[in-house]
Write a structure and sequence with these properties.
The chain has 8 helices and 11 strands. The protein has 239 residues and is of the alpha/beta class. The relative contact order is 0.16. The structure holds uridine-5'-diphosphate (UDP). The site of uridine-5'-diphosphate has 24 residues, from α2, α3 and α5.
Length: 239
């Protein structure tokens, strides 16, 4: 068919900001619904989808730390923020006919089930969408690192880093009209050019595990599907 997926299992990293839409903070319902529509489409193609959701739309530990809070405490608040986003995301997924399961790296057992790797694998095999919440469960890390970690753990063939821009550019495309998109880059090239694809910990993990990362825009309709079909969309960073 024209929609044969190039990947069997993917890990999609959504930042908290992706849930804000045009709002200044929080969760924008219409934005979530639109995003989940894109996820539903690739799930219907038979792709197993796991999601790591950020929390920056609600709380960022670095900012809390800068304002005088104990950094680790602020980071735990940030992780809890991702749980709220995960619940909103899973709810929207269920409403669009997907079956979502939230698994948290921090146990909050009345609210979400804890992350247990074999169970996550089982859900994926059953065609359920697994939403990983609470990042890695550790302060001083980010949800990008959680994406790399969970991606490696579940044997995802690709980590998809959803951004506002549709890939990695030679310069900021909003400021420089001559900026061009890289279709592909090696991890070494990305590092040599200091392109800041993910934070250093996440980047190192993906590079070590030879886990390719695709940077793409979640706001571009159909882009997620194009990525999953292996078409020229976004930027592929590979070993
Ligand atoms: N966080 C953490 N450990 C993790 C993941 C996240 O401490 O493994 C905290 C950290 O304070 C971070 C916040 O949760 O600022 C929200 O995560 P992140 O900034 O990665 O969210 P995003 O930028 O993707 O919205």
């Amino acid at each position: 068919t024209t929609s044969t997926p190039a990947y069997k299992r993917i890990l999609l990293k959504l930042s908290g900001e992706a849930l804000m839409g045009e709002d200044a903070f929080g969760i924008n319902r219409a934005t979530i619904v639109r995003m989940v529509g894109e996820v539903a489409e690739v799930t219907r193609m038979g792709v197993e989808v796991a999601v790591v959701i950020g929390g920056g739309n609600i709380f960022r530990g670095v900012a809390g730390g800068a304002e005088g809070m104990d950094r680790a405490t602020a980071d735990y608040m940030g992780m809890l923020a991702t749980v709220m986003n995960a619940l909103a995301l899973a709810d929207a997924m269920d409403k669009q006919g997907l079956t979502a399961r939230v698994m948290s790296a921090i146990s909050i057992e009345q609210v979400v089930e804890p992350y247990v790797r074999p169970k996550a694998l089982q859900y994926l095999e059953e065609g359920k969408v697994v939403v990983f919440a609470a990042g890695t469960g550790n302060p001083f890390f980010t949800t990008d690192t959680a994406a790399a970690l969970r991606g490696a753990e579940i044997g995802a063939e690709l980590v998809l880093k959803a951004t506002k821009v549709d890939g990695v550019y030679t310069a900021d495309p909003h400021k420089d009209a001559s900026a061009t998109r890289y279709a592909t880059l090696t991890f070494d090239e990305a590092m040599a050019r200091n392109l800041g694809i993910m934070d250093a910990t996440a980047f190192a993990l993906c590079r070590d595990q030879k886990l390719p990362v695709k940077v793409f825009s979640i706001f571009k309709p159909g882009a997620l599907k194009r990525v999953v079909m292996g078409l020229d969309e976004g930027t592929l960073v590979h070993a």
